[in-house]
Specification:
This protein is α/β, with parallel strands linked by helices. Helix 2 (91-106) crosses helix 3 (161-181), helix 3 packs parallel to helix 6 (220-233) and helix 7 (258-270) crosses helix 8 (295-302). The radius of gyration is 19 Å and the shape is globular. The strands form 4 sheets. An 8-stranded parallel beta barrel has the order 3-4-5-8-9-10-13-14, surrounded by 6 helices. It has a two-stranded antiparallel sheet with strand order 1-2. It has helices spanning 50-61, 91-106, 161-181, 195-200, 215-218, 220-233, 258-270, 295-302, 316-324, 335-339, 343-349, 367-378; strands spanning 21-23, 26-28, 32-34, 66-73, 110-116, 132-133, 157-158, 185-189, 238-244, 276-280, 287-289, 291-294, 307-310, 330-333. The chain is 33% helix and 16% strand. A hairpin with a 2-residue loop joins strand 1 and strand 2. It binds flavin mononucleotide.
Length: 381
């Protein structure tokens, strides 16, 4: 028996999930990770709280090998996306993360800070009025109600080259603070429609200054951020990049150019000084472009670094299948981890995996709402 009382040998079909993995120099006890999830539960001035420490600790105690934090804003200019989002934009925000990370470590998991600049999708920023993006193009869709948004997104101003340089510096400085706070690494949020993904997306990036143009030019900002972050944290600290096709405001978006675009994007990212790629799709195993390989498999094909796959992988057989087929090196769970903070232990023991309860995130996706939902369920409602 393992120290936690579970059999050492899980059912062989899910065994791939429990093999150790190295991300750069970071040893993970298994291949299950918590996906980044914004919970808008920090203090109004962006400090992580004791309740957040409880929330993150539960995933470590439940057996996950890695916890990726919610998206953390990087600067005191235009990075913040949501009110009550935590930051790593100054020393006091850095100090607030320290006990959270220590708790996760105490329970045997590693923790990576996801660094996020919301760009034109910002719907709550206590530092600045107005939003910034690659070009003055109003984002599709409507603001997210479960993060207290309402109505259309504002029309952003196109970033100046100085503003771009400051945003890059913001990522680098926040990464240095993450290291000082005790995090084991940082994940650059290049996915889901936020600033870096806005630069990658041809529909909203109309620039002609070297940050816009073909797919390589549109990736330039992500490349510069990764290089600046690496320079800020040194060689012996994990740096990853998260990437997606879909966006929070344009769920079904696909890269034009299909597999050719994927080859350029993953080939470029794979040559960066980064330790892993985190690839997300609605269902991670589905073909990325109607037919053919999944997006995670394409990342594996074109980048010589570990790939974390995300998207509806709470079914243990699906999750283990991604690893067994070599489409990914680890899996990350969002909703599955919210349903069961001890998902890995449940899988090892063959316990039932319940469906996701959307009420946990409704009407507001914060921890107070989840606590109320839990109390209601405990009370039998
Ligand atoms: C409440 C909530 C908040 C999220 N916040 C973030 C975030 O801050 N950064 C990010 O990259 N993805 C975020 N996501 C997306 C998840 O990381 C993940 O991609 C998504 O939930 C799909 O994975 P799943 O099918 O395992 O839930 C969020 C998802 C949820 C449900």
């Amino acid at each position: 028996m393992a120290a936690d009382g579970h059999p050492l040998q899980p059912d062989s079909s899910v065994a791939p999930l429990f093999a150790p993995l190295a991300l750069g120099g970071l040893a993970l006890r298994n291949r299950t990770a918590v996906a980044p999830m914004t919970r808008v539960s920090a203090s109004a001035d962006g400090h992580a709280t004791a309740r957040m420490a409880d929330y993150y600790r539960a995933f470590a105690a439940g057996g996950f090998g890695l916890v990726v934090s919610e998206g953390i804003y990087t600067d005191q200019a235009h990075a913040q996306g949501y009110l009550f989002q935590p930051g790593l934009a100054d020393h006091s925000q850095r100090e607030a993360w320290r006990p959270v990370v220590e708790d996760v470590h105490r329970h045997g998991a590693r923790m990576i800070a996801q660094l996020m600049h919301a760009g034109a999708l910002s719907q709550g920023n206590r530092f600045r009025a107005g939003t910034r993006g690659p070009s003055a193009v109003r984002p599709k869709g409507r603001q997210l109600a479960f993060y207290r948004g309402d109505g259309e997104y504002p029309l952003p101003q196109a970033m100046t080259e100085d503003e771009i340089a400051n945003a890059v510096r913001g990522f680098a400085d926040a990464a240095a603070r993450a290291r000082e706070a005790g995090f084991d690494g940082v994940e650059i949020h290049g996915a889901n429609g936020y600033l870096l993904d806005q630069f990658l997306a041809e529909g909203v990036n109309l620039r002609d200054d070297g940050y816009g143009g073909d797919v390589r030019d549109r990736l330039r900002l992500t490349v510069e951020v990764a290089q600046a972050v690496r320079a800020a944290v040194g060689a012996d600290f994990v740096v990853g990049v998260r990437i997606s096709q879909g966006k929070v405001n344009d769920f079904d978006h696909k890269w034009s150019g299909g597999e050719d675009a994927a080859a350029v994007i993953f080939g470029t990212l794979g040559r960066l000084p980064v330790d892993y790629l985190h690839v997300t799709e609605f269902e991670a195993w589905q073909p990325a472009f109607g037919e053919g390989p999944s997006l995670a498999a394409l990342a594996k094909q074109h980048a010589p670094i570990p790939v974390l796959a995300n998207g509806s992988l709470h079914d243990p057989a699906q999750a283990a299948g991604m690893l067994a087929r070599g489409e990914a090196d680890a899996v990350t769970l969002g909703r599955g981890a919210l349903t069961h903070s001890d998902w890995p232990q449940r899988v090892r023991t063959g316990a039932v995996i319940a469906p996701f309860d959307r009420e946990l995130l409704s009407p507001i996706a914060d921890l107070a709402n989840a606590d109320r939902r839990q109390a209601k369920r405990d009370g039998g409602n």
